[in-house]
Write a structure and sequence with these properties.
single chain, alpha/beta, Aspartate Aminotransferase, domain 1, Aspartate Aminotransferase, domain 2, 7-stranded mixed sheet, 4-stranded antiparallel sheet, binds pyridoxal-5'-phosphate, Putative succinyldiaminopimelate transaminase DapC
Amino acid sequence: MREPVLVPRLRPFTSTVFAEMTALAVRHDAVNLGQGFPDTDGPAGMLEQAKDSLFGGDNQYPPGPGRPELRAAIARHRQRYGTSYDPDTEVLVTAGATEAIAAALLALTEAGDEVIVVEPYYDSYAAAVAMAGAQRRVIGLTEAGDGRLELDLDAFRAAITPRTRAVLLNSPHNPTGTVFSREQLTEVARLCVEHDLIAITDEVYEHLVFDGSEHVPLATLPGMRTRTVAISSAGKTFNCTGWKIGWVCASPELVAAVKAAKQFITFVSGGPLQPAVAYALEHELDWVEGLRRDLQEKRDRLSAGLADAGFDVRPSFGTYFVTADVRPLGFSDAAELAWALPERVGVAAVPVQVFTDHPDEWKYLLRFAFCKQNEVIDEAVGRLRKLG
Ligand SMILES: *Cc1c(COP(=O)(O)O)cnc(C)c1O
């Protein structure tokens, strides 16, 4: 056989840092704050619904666009931002946000097109752009006066070319925990309209914002309703990351396009889980508010612990994550430290540079997940104290 067998455009994506770091964590019995998944279950009412569906005979293919009660619940949920979507033509249920992002890129971009991506970026973005055959144009974040990371809007403007087709934006932002302001997003919207760009927005942490920060969906800003593919998912909102129930809200034209790709990737998924997510969107938002408050406390707990252990902790305003600079502890490369950490003190974390095209610019930050039980956070902090 011709070697290597993998096509060139996917060669950079053969392994994920999460798989490698988790294997290392297991080998050294480390507390794993690397991968962002919660270690407690979602709302009991939602789990009961799923059980009823599984034993109630709901085990065959759901409709291609998703179960109607779920599409209706998604559209109603989206009204919290003041935008209404027609559940029949403007909502599509997907196999998690990940499939929604990949299907949107496959349907809307191709060879010769450029997609603006913000680094550090969620790890599936670069691979999904590559699968579509498009090129990513990476822009960075800059630090505002209060230590908050913001979009580099000058870099954004400079990255737009006649080939730019789409911008892929994630807020609340993984891995940094920043939340883009209405002011900044308004300028993004203006540029999208001016240059006729499609926006693909990854909003999976839409509910998980802290300290009164506001999640502003780009689609709610002037001119964006018709050119935004808004993506979210049940995984982070209802502590069910293994369910992979996600969705797209967009204009009928954009939804039809994304569906054209999606229907030949998975066609459908998670049939018996879809009514449970519909139930949760309708009845469990109080539970989600409790989760949000809980996560805010966990953020404080882990941030204080990391500072105590000697890290320079950066502010986090949302998501599951906080980042910390390793330099005060005498290290000059967070990746080197991350690979040594499980064996050295029994903790796993992820270096932010693996989510970038410019590792040198992001060399000093480690990402820690705080979506864990307090005892787990405390154990990790206790172990990290030995570093100093
Ligand atoms: C977890 C996560 C996803 C994936 O969502 P799924 O619904 O599990 O596919 C997408 N984007 C970001 C930023 C995430 O953190």
